[in-house]
Write a structure and sequence with these properties.
single chain; 355 residues; alpha/beta; Rossmann fold; seven-stranded mixed beta sheet; five-stranded parallel beta sheet
Length: 355
Amino acid sequence: MKNWLHVISGVGAVVLVLMGGYFLFREAPPEEVVEEVVKVGWIGHGDHRAVDLALKDLHMDNVEVVFSEVECVHDDVLQTVQELSDQGIVVAISELCSDMYFMASQEFGKADVVMIQASSDMNDYVDEPMFRTVPHQYQALAYGIDYLSSKGIDNIAVVGVTAGWSAAIDELIMALFNGEEETLTFVSLTNDNDEAIDDEVLKTRLEELKEVDPDVVYIVARGDDPARIMTIADEIELESTMYGISELYDDVESLGEIGNDLRVIVVGGGSSGFEEQYKIAYSEDAGAYSAHAYDAMTAVARVLRDGAMTKEDMVVRLHELSFEGASGKIDFTDNGHIPGRFEVHVLKDGEFVKK
């Protein structure tokens, strides 16, 4: 019996030694890695669902988007920029209006936050460094002039306001349409005192323009003026093809029936694949800038995956990006702009359609 006890004791001792060795020398279980959540800001007004769609498609579970809806009021935008910056965002996607986005970009920069503009544009900032997935108005005009030149158009008249926001457009057209064989004529909707002219004066000016016989009349005006110009042009049988600034895309109701056949050069929307994907997701058509917001979020996701966390690193990596996005080629220039994709749309029965 004692022998058996000795055997059992010996075996027990061996087991204890082996177990002790196991616990002493085994590898510790790997620590659970918790991915740091990265905050991305969205600022603007309107539909931001394209950003949500991009996040789902890219499976970026460690990204939290802080959405801040704000109207284009200076002090409100300024406060929202500050609030987003205080929340620790590393990058902001903006769908602010033309009047506010540049100011927002400057303020975000002070907080070491990179901003990408995903809607709207403004002539004043064509040379300013700023990341944007929407091409600049200058690019749209350049495309339009090239398009008309390719059609053999060498005689253009610009009819519209010649002060304020439109003056910059006039200057761009002059810079772009300046060939030796090209004729450019301006017809102003204001008098020498910058007061709006009445229909009789406008009719006289358009009759004088008829003598020049322009191939194209390019309307640089908004509100009731485009319809007024086209109505009088029709009365005097001015047979020029009518083009207008891209903003007229939003003025269909004010154009009325007289607006039929008006052409505009617009920034291209989303690819057919994106448009279909958006409609399946939300049972609605994508907005004018939905694809650009989608591409902005895609660009942000790509640089975050590459490890960019500081403003400097993010800027470098954004400049290195090149991919075919939902809105076209995303390949930022030194100024942060993109090549852009443009289309000619014509107004037919109250709706602009691709030509």
